[in-house]
Amino acid sequence: MFNPTAFAPRLIEWYRRHGRDLPWRHTRDPYRIWLSEVILQQTRVRQGMPYYHAFVEKFPTVSDLAAASEQEVLRLWQGLGYYSRARNLHETARIVAQTYNGVFPDNYAGLLALKGVGPYTAAAIASFAFGEQVAVLDGNVYRVLARLLGIETDIATPKAKTEFARVAATLVPADEPDTYNQAIMEFGAIQCTPVAPDCLLCPFQAECAACNTGRQHELPVKSKKGLVKNRFFHYIVVRFGDGVAMKQRPAGDIWQGLYDFPLVEQTAQESIASPDELLGLPAVAALGTPTSVSLEPEAYTHILTHQRIEARFWRLEYNMPPVLPPAVQLYTAAQAHDLPKPVLIDKFLKTVFV
Ligand code: SF4
Fold first, then answer.
1. Domain check: are 115 and 193 in the same one?
2. Whole-model pTM?
3. Which pLDDT tens digit goes with each residue over 49-97?
4. Of 166, 183, 213, which one is at a domain's C-terminal end?
5. Domain of 275, in residue numbers
6. Candidate list 37, 132, 176, 186, residue with the active-site label
7. Residue 173 and residue 308 in one domain
8. Which of 16, 30, 143, 339 could lock onto 104 through a cystine, CB 3.0 to 4.6 A?
9. Residue from 193, 216, 217 whose mutation best tests the ligand 1 pocket (most atoms within 8 A of CB)
10. 45 and 20 in contact (C-beta within 8 Å)?
11. pLDDT tens digits for 275-287?
12. Closest Cα to residue 104, out of 116, 118, 91, 114?
């Protein structure tokens, strides 16, 4: 039977033995803690670590981050995906720098009032930086609590937020809320993992509802994600002299603020099969007459949470300046390198400037 009072000390004991030594666990600086939390949302520790170091090095304080241009921030974020996180990070940094004189609020309620900071991040900063007794609730915590206590509420529903928050709040100890919160997240990350929980060596095996009923793989309950949308991109890679034509992506679609090539999006049925079909498109015809057109044989696939992008790249060479739309410009290899780009574009660009 699960013992709520004994849980925190036993979990903390497990954490002291098995927890990983991560750089953001050695600081009480709310800026660094916030940075690590934003980077690690939807990102594994190993992938996020170099980004954390790069951000801390380039922007040692929240005011340094606030003073950067969006382009610099996106460029440093490049490869981490979910770029709205980077834009929100930047916006929140500006608010902290301008409205709060570069000092983060020192409690949960104040942090939560910050635009761009949700309950999870506010709880993480409040507890790790200021030792406040608040519970963090991320995917790891949902999983651990659902399994230990046999909670069957669908974690994708708003009802689950309230229910899990209530349970989680009763378990956080007053004396070491920060260590406890680190411990429960770490426990979910390395012991009670989604696919292969290590129940055999788990200190809570005897009292775990999921383990005792063989339901580790059924808990937590999570309703299926929405359908994945397939999109078909035909990129027009315009070369003239030592430049390649690129543009910034607009608001309201994926990769907002990043740079890619001029693009024609098609449905699968209407995909462009030949150079003549491509050159017949008004947007491509308006560029002028290229000296050569070739289709890259390889199709690049890029999977996002709710979208699957299949991209083809057409190379168009011009010996007269192409007539580019106002938002499109020619960039040299060095300039293009410095632009923030989706990974897909970054990869292809390496084949453009060889
Ligand atoms: S016994 Fe298994 S399912 Fe239960 S908490 Fe431990 S690792 Fe998770």
1. yes
2. 0.80
3. 999 999 999 999 999 999 999 999 999 999 998 888 999 999 999 999 9
4. 213
5. 229-352
6. 37
7. no
8. 30
9. 216
10. yes
11. 988 898 888 999 9
12. 114
